[in-house]
Amino acid sequence: MNQLSDRINSLSTSATLAMAAKARELREEGKDIIGLSLGEPDFDTPDFIKESAKQAIDDNYNSYTPVDGYAELKDAIITKFKRDNQLDYNRQQIVVSTGAKQSLFNIASVMLNDADEVILPCPYWVSYSDIVKLNGGVPIEVKTSIDNDFKMTPAQLEAAITPKTKMIWYSSPCNPSGSVYSKKELRALADVLQKYPNIYVVSDEIYEHINFVGGHCSMAQFEDMFERTITVNGVSKAFAMTGWRIGYIGAPTTIARACNKIQGQVTSGANCIAQRAVISALEASPDRVQYMIDEFKERRQLILGLLREIDGFSCNEPEGAFYVFPDISAYFGKTLKGQTIDNASEFAMYLLENANVATVTGDAFGNPNCIRISYAASQEQIIEAVKRIKNALS
Ligand code: PMP
Ligand code: GLU
């Protein structure tokens, strides 16, 4: 029976969500699993945001919203883009969606024709490649290495460009490497693109505020890139609002209109109560969530210090987001507890089964030598998890 389409059969399951589900399952069986697989802040949504949601319910916000978002929310997004990124968007250029994941899906579906190529500097966020494929595009992976802090160089970008190149997608701060592209580095990539005026950039800035070095730069800040950059952002990470499912874009008007059109046929728009709450989140000064960023920074130091004590773990120093992405290829070919480890997936599975710690294989992010560890967990959990990892490997 061919119940399912070829398209869905060729789609991979989200490795981050699959590992989180597996960890949940094992916990239900009574195992004491420490989950460091999911990129999800372990904080509560701040009270001032929750209050706005409660108020919205009492104020009877219960109807369909405009497909691309409430005008007041778009205005809050416009103010945020101006305040934090010095970007000038108007209401026709903003589209609110059900999470940045849907924003990305919309972009792929309205911009890609079959066989269009999308350059993905590796490691990239797990869903980029499948979202591109699902929409007929061809992901072109550009390998980077820990020696260059997992960043794509201008020469690598230029070498990956072909007549079929439609877009480049990247995140900065990067999930999974934590790398942050400086203004100078982005300018150098933009300089390459000057020779190729038909190539667009998707700049995923969802970790913008979780940046330990400052100097966040948006590609659209460069005047010559504004008209061909789609800036993606959302509230999941900085505001601890993953389950509220609100993301948004600032984009050239034609692209924003097309995203609105597809959304009108697929979801009718994002949830009304969540949208009202996000107005408060974005109108507030980013200082109000600084306590979470400070805590992530402490945890980063903690986990880096602990991991560096384990033989065979080689880490870059992540400048943002809440992940470490150690290269663990030193273990490939080794036998641990009678089990030979041949790749990062087997390594992550070994840690799950022998250390009761859930991580994610680097394959899912386009780098088969690494695993991703999320440190969006308490310091006690981090200490215990690394202790278990160390024991399981010794
Ligand atoms: N982009 C990146 C780089 C991410 O890590 C995530 C994680 N959720 C998303 C987009 C999607 O975020 P959401 O759909 O929760 O807004
Ligand atoms: N973005 C998070 C992660 O990378 C959440 C999971 C997901 O949306 O895939 O783990």
UniProtKB/TrEMBL annotation:
The lineage of its organism: Bacteria, Pseudomonadati, Bacteroidota, Flavobacteriia, Flavobacteriales. Residues 31-389 form the Aminotransferase class I/classII large domain. InterPro entries: Aminotransferase_I/II_large, AspAT/PAT-like, NHTrfase_class1_PyrdxlP-BS, PyrdxlP-dep_Trfase, PyrdxlP-dep_Trfase_major, PyrdxlP-dep_Trfase_small. PROSITE patterns: AA_TRANSFER_CLASS_1. Keywords: Aminotransferase, Pyridoxal phosphate, Transferase. PANTHER family: ASPARTATE AMINOTRANSFERASE. It comes from the Bacteria. It is an enzyme of class 2 (transferase). Its cofactor is pyridoxal 5'-phosphate. Its EC number is 2.6.1.-. This is Aminotransferase. GO terms for molecular function: transaminase activity. Belongs to the class-I pyridoxal-phosphate-dependent aminotransferase family. SUPFAM superfamilies: PLP-dependent transferases. It holds the Pfam family Aminotran_1_2.
